[in-house]
Amino acid sequence: MTKKVIVDIDNTLWHFCDALYEELRKINKNFPAYDYWTHWDIWEGYCTEVEFYNAVNAIHLKQHHDNYLPYPEARDFLSNLKDNGYHITIASHRSPDYKKQTEIWLDKHGLVYDELHLSYQKTQLFNESTDVVVDDSPHVLEEAVKKGIMATGLLFPWNRDYHDNGFMLFNSLKEILKYILDRNLDRYGGKPMEIKVEKPTQQYLEERKVSSWAIWEKEVSRFDWYYDATEECYLLEGDVVVETKDGIKVQFGKGDFVTFPEGLSCVWDIKKPVKKHYNFR
Ligand SMILES: [Mg+2]
Questions:
Q1: Separation of 136 CA from ligand 1 center, angstroms?
Q2: Ligand 1 midpoint to CA 36 (Å)
Q3: What is the per-residue DSSP string for 69-94?
Q4: Are residues 59 and 139 in the same domain?
Q5: Are 279 and 213 in contact (CB under 8 A)?
Q6: Considering its fold, how many domains does the chain have in total?
Q7: pTM of the predicted model as reported, rounded to 2 decimal places
Q8: Is the Cβ–Cβ distance between 46 and 27 less than 8 Å?
Q9: Mean pLDDT in runs of 10 for the chain (281 residues)?
Q10: Ligand 1 mean position to 256 CA, how many Å?
Q11: Which end of the chain has fewer beta carbons closer than 10 Å to its terminal beta carbon, N or C?
């Protein structure tokens, strides 16, 4: 079965925001650094919308220039997806006028793909045969989630506040790749994502030196979580229901020893405040 992934370019395969900041500073040297770009209307108060989009276009026009480099991990990220059977569509909200520059850039940096789609309507590509969308735009990721597509991307100031909306954000493409491949294993008949809940003996707790493990505490809340390593924990206090994406609910609380497998995506629903010792394997 061919799996389909749609991968964005700007701020997914390369650090577009640095190039944009440089262009924007040519218009107004007081433009704030991208740490402050928490919404897309960042030009307001610093330049006009037209000047802003001219700056964006100026970059895409010279995409193939030598100073615009992909992230060091970008090449392996795409090659690994290809090797794992994904059909890769590179999709960008840039004008089709910049197709040549974009193709040259992708080719010269060894960024493999099957299709290149440049348009202002990327989300039109999303359909029932799309398995994964990788993007930094919260709007694009939300559209993917609405269609039941796995959505993930790099973490930035402009998407950080939306991380509860059903998509997963990471600090590196390596972590994104692992997330996609782990979920893929799970989905296409790999290892089951089982959460183990046990009542440990005092002797077991002592042998494992559980009381010396770090402590984590959390108030009543509900949030998404992804395990990039296997976690073991021992609950000192609390009452929690964890629900996996397959709809399996597991409840545990004070006195339980719980093991979460690497690669698990779930929702934590904390009913009573939690205090636990934990350890990653
Ligand atoms: Mg982008």
A1: 5
A2: 17
A3: PBPTTHHHHHHHHHHTTEEEEEEESS
A4: yes
A5: yes
A6: 2
A7: 0.70
A8: yes
A9: 90 97 95 88 90 95 95 96 93 95 97 95 91 96 92 95 88 95 67 79 92 96 90 96 80 94 88 96 84
A10: 43
A11: N
Whether residues 172 and 259 share a domain: the answer is no
Q: What is the pLDDT of residue 22?
A: 95
Residue 74 CA to ligand 1 centre (angstroms): 14
Which residue segment(s) compose the domain that 206 sits in? 196-280
Distance 253 CA to ligand 1 centre (A): 41
Q: What pLDDT, on a 0 to 100 scale, did the predictor assign at position 109? A: 97
Query: Are 165 and 268 part of one and the same domain?
Result: no
Main-chain dihedrals φ then ψ at residue 208, nearest 5 degrees:
-85, 0
Could you tell me the distance, in angstroms and rounded to a whole number, from the CA of residue 224 to the centre of ligand 1? 23
Distance (Å) from CA 20 to ligand 1 centroid? 12
Q: How far is the CA of 138 from the centre of ligand 1 (A)?
A: 10
Which residues does residue 198 pair with via DSSP β-bridges, in sequence order? 257
Here the tokens at position 188 are 């296409």
- 231 with 261, same domain? yes
CA–centroid distance, residue 139 to ligand 1 (Å): 11
- We report the CATH number of the domain holding residue 204 as 2.60.120.10
We report the CATH number of the domain holding residue 99 as 3.40.50.1000
